[in-house]
């Protein structure tokens, strides 16, 4: 996945405080998204329908469609939020300690264990979100960039993108195996330690590539 470009400085128009109506709309949108994730975590994604959401928050379905053109659009927004949350957790966990890479990988795996249905939407379900494409949402790219930046800092002689891809894939495997009961939760920490030790032998820097 290619690195995100730096955003432009905020303009005067972008710093204007939202109106009360805009704040209410933003709060309503947030409530819809939060409820969608809550329903998914307790009952699975098939339970997340616009009809069910509208009934749960005492709105009509047209109100849902004011914020999301379709159920797919709603799930895509949930996925973008999920990646933003994952990136923030990795940044917070990594901090500035000596084992930043291990902390980052641990945060990834813990996120998948704590939010299994959200993780499912982000990584295994069919969702209308482009990956490794020009229109990939910024939060999706950003989550990968966070891990790559940590690799770049901790493993300066390695190809940061390739190493980050390998770490991401291995962490995803641990999340999936743990969720399916194929691997005991208590063994994950040991595997993560071994995983983080492995990048010392990661491939050297090479030519440009797009990433995952």
TrEMBL record:
<feature type="region of interest" description="Disordered">
    <location>
        <begin position="1"/>
        <end position="25"/>
    </location>
</feature>
<dbReference type="Pfam" id="PF00440">
    <property type="entry name" value="TetR_N"/>
</dbReference>
<keyword id="KW-0804">Transcription</keyword>
<dbReference type="GO" id="GO:0003700">
    <property type="term" value="F:DNA-binding transcription factor activity"/>
</dbReference>
<keyword id="KW-0238">DNA-binding</keyword>
<dbReference type="InterPro" id="IPR009057">
    <property type="entry name" value="Homeodomain-like_sf"/>
</dbReference>
<dbReference type="GO" id="GO:0000976">
    <property type="term" value="F:transcription cis-regulatory region binding"/>
</dbReference>
<dbReference type="InterPro" id="IPR001647">
    <property type="entry name" value="HTH_TetR"/>
</dbReference>
<keyword id="KW-0805">Transcription regulation</keyword>
<dbReference type="InterPro" id="IPR025996">
    <property type="entry name" value="MT1864/Rv1816-like_C"/>
</dbReference>
<feature type="domain" description="HTH tetR-type">
    <location>
        <begin position="26"/>
        <end position="86"/>
    </location>
</feature>
<dbReference type="InterPro" id="IPR036271">
    <property type="entry name" value="Tet_transcr_reg_TetR-rel_C_sf"/>
</dbReference>
<dbReference type="Pfam" id="PF13305">
    <property type="entry name" value="TetR_C_33"/>
</dbReference>
<feature type="DNA-binding region" description="H-T-H motif">
    <location>
        <begin position="49"/>
        <end position="68"/>
    </location>
</feature>
<protein>
    <submittedName>
        <fullName>TetR family transcriptional regulator</fullName>
    </submittedName>
</protein>
<feature type="compositionally biased region" description="Low complexity">
    <location>
        <begin position="1"/>
        <end position="19"/>
    </location>
</feature>
<dbReference type="InterPro" id="IPR050109">
    <property type="entry name" value="HTH-type_TetR-like_transc_reg"/>
</dbReference>
